[in-house]
Amino acid sequence: MKFVAFNVRDDERKYFENWSKENKIEVTLLKEELTSTTIAKAKGYDAVLGFQTGNYPDNLFDELAKFNVKVFSVRNVGVDNVDLETAGKYNITVTNVPAYSPNAIAEFTITQLLQLLRKQNLFRQRMAKQDFRWAPFVGEELGHMTVGVMGTGRIGRAAIQIYKGFGAKVIAYDPFPNPQLEKEGIYVSQEELFKQADVITLHMPATDENYHCINEDSIKLMKDGVYIVNAARGALIDTEALIAALKNGKVKGAALDTYENEAPIFNHDLSGQAINDPMFKELLAMDNVVLSPHIAFYTETAVQNMVEVSLASAKKVVETGTAKTIVQ
């Protein structure tokens, strides 16, 4: 049994090497992303492990089928960039890591929101000029707010517990309600969530149904001065509509760890290079936006789990033909 992992970062390497040694399975580690060119390096392996926020090559599963690869295991939750239909056509099993660390992402969203509420962008700018006055940047307290959680899977539920710890009133929307949360009576319709929430935090996968669920029309339903938090998927937000609302004050602030056109930007060193993305540059320059490069997941615990679960899933499928983490 032999595996090959693409787009391996230095922080993942020790976990790959330890697992390979413990399980006596050869795992080849490559720094390159999976592209139409590099995919040839998958020849001779039983399983391929991938991790990239951008698109995988269109011919991914056509080529993996030629190489008799049995498993494609992604080291993350989302599979919206994976052609599951073609994988199924070639009988290639796709697995993911459904819960590498829900707390990592939930904690991060609250951290970013608190920076917005306490005007940290503005204070950092002022202090850089050695101006240490307080006024007029009065902060707001989360415990006095209604937080609308969109998506109540593992991450959404972790976020709900943290928000409750701050004393916030929590309401939620999910097309597939959690039975335990239903008993607590926190579910409302999506429209009601937009109308009632002071903070809207997104914890949903990117699907055709919720593409740009935050858009010009949904923003009109929201309270004046609402805050929006997104550490899920960039495609959930119509960025152009959000920027307009941030400018006119309808949206008071946004904490964004994802961006719909992030693939050529996030996790790349673009020092000294021009960024040819006007919307992104506008977000980056806004005082009422806290922007981060898709790092909500990025903790030691999460990285270890992402590597080990993806490897264990691939091993299980090769040995038995099944695993609990199969998505296709």
Automatic annotation (TrEMBL):
Domain D-isomer specific 2-hydroxyacid dehydrogenase catalytic: 7-327
SUPFAM superfamilies associated with the record: Formate/glycerate dehydrogenase catalytic domain-like (SSF52283), NAD(P)-binding Rossmann-fold domains (SSF51735)
Protein name (Swiss-Prot/TrEMBL): D-lactate dehydrogenase
InterPro entries: D-isomer_2_OHA_DH_cat_dom, D-isomer_DH_CS, D-isomer_DH_CS1, D-isomer_DH_NAD-bd, D-LDH-like, NAD(P)-bd_dom_sf
Keyword Hydrolase included in the entry's annotation: no
Keywords: NAD, Oxidoreductase
Domain D-isomer specific 2-hydroxyacid dehydrogenase NAD-binding residue range list: 111-296
Family indicated by similarity: Belongs to the D-isomer specific 2-hydroxyacid dehydrogenase family.
Highest taxon of the lineage: Bacteria
Organism of this sequence: Ligilactobacillus ruminis
